[in-house]
Specification:
Blueprint lengths: L3 H13 L8 H12 L3 H30 L5 H25 L22
Length: about 120
């Protein structure tokens, strides 16, 4: 049987880690949780968080190049990208803490590099 409080905490830490920083440290949190946790919902949330990190970095790179190539003319796109990144993260946190703690959160419109079949046991 799983501990619901532990499930909520670890799932929230996985998704919220991206708010700590945009450095590589932030992806280490869900990776460690994925490796150490035995709860299937927590593992799925950690995988989804890792996928989201990779997508944020990929799209962030594209947005940064577009801003640089346009000599800053496309800076508003950077702001929209940041709002989307933070908005999706907050949506995930609200979902795993308040809405449905027994179901993994899935971000819309992202590439999933780690699938449900990926296992780290």
């Amino acid at each position: 049987m799983h501990d619901p409080d532990k499930r909520m905490l670890l799932s929230a830490l996985s998704h919220g880690a991206i708010l700590f920083s945009t450095a590589l440290f932030s992806i280490c949190v869900p990776i460690v949780i994925l490796i150490l946790s035995e709860d299937s919902v927590v593992k799925e949330n950690a995988k989804e968080s890792i996928n989201f990190h990779l997508n944020v970095w990929f799209y962030g790179f594209i947005v940064a190049v577009m801003i640089w190539l346009s000599f800053g003319m496309l800076l508003p796109i950077g702001g929209l990208w940041l709002l989307l990144h933070w908005g999706l993260t907050i949506w995930a946190l609200v979902n795993v803490l308040l809405i449905d703690t027994d179901k993994p959160f899935r971000y819309p419109f992202i590439f999933r590099f780690l699938s449900k079949r990926a296992s780290f046991n």
